[in-house]
Every structure is written in structure tokens, then in C-alpha cells.
Specification:
Elements: H1 2-80
Length: 81
């Protein structure tokens, strides 16, 4: 009688332990996934920022070129006169 009870208890304990382990594993997996997602998001944000910066730089360059052209034109007009 006692022996069987003990065995049952042991089994229950084992089951509980297994459940706990599984839960822990699941939690860990979830955490890892979350971390990965966060990392991906961060990377995406960084890439976006870089792209924006590049675009801004290009725009600035174009503006500068336009300004230079305008200056040249004005200068040439002056020279012609």
C-alpha cells in the first residue's frame, strides 16, 4: 500500500517536474523569439535611418549642384554683358 502510494507520488512529482521544464523551455523559446524580433526591428530601423541619411545627402548634393549651376549662369550672363 505504502509503496504504491510512494510510487504514485513519485510519478506525480516527475510529471510536475516535466511540466515545469516544458514551461521553462517554452518561456525561454518565447524570450529568444522576442529578442530575435527586437533585433530584426532594430536592424530594420537602422537600415531605414541609413537610407534616409543617404537620400538627404543626395538631395543636398543635388541642391548644391543646382546652386552652382545658377551661379555659373549668372556669372556668364554678367560676362556676356
Amino acid at each position: 500500500m505504502l509503496l504504491i502510494d510512494l510510487l504514485l507520488l513519485l510519478l506525480l512529482m516527475m510529471m510536475m517536474m516535466m511540466m515545469m521544464m516544458m514551461m521553462m523551455m517554452m518561456m525561454m523559446m518565447m524570450m529568444m523569439m522576442m529578442m530575435m524580433m527586437m533585433m530584426m526591428m532594430m536592424m530594420m530601423m537602422m537600415m531605414m535611418m541609413m537610407m534616409m541619411m543617404m537620400m538627404m545627402m543626395m538631395m543636398m548634393m543635388v541642391m548644391m549642384m543646382m546652386m552652382m549651376m545658377m551661379m555659373m549662369m549668372i556669372d556668364s550672363i554678367r560676362i556676356v554683358r
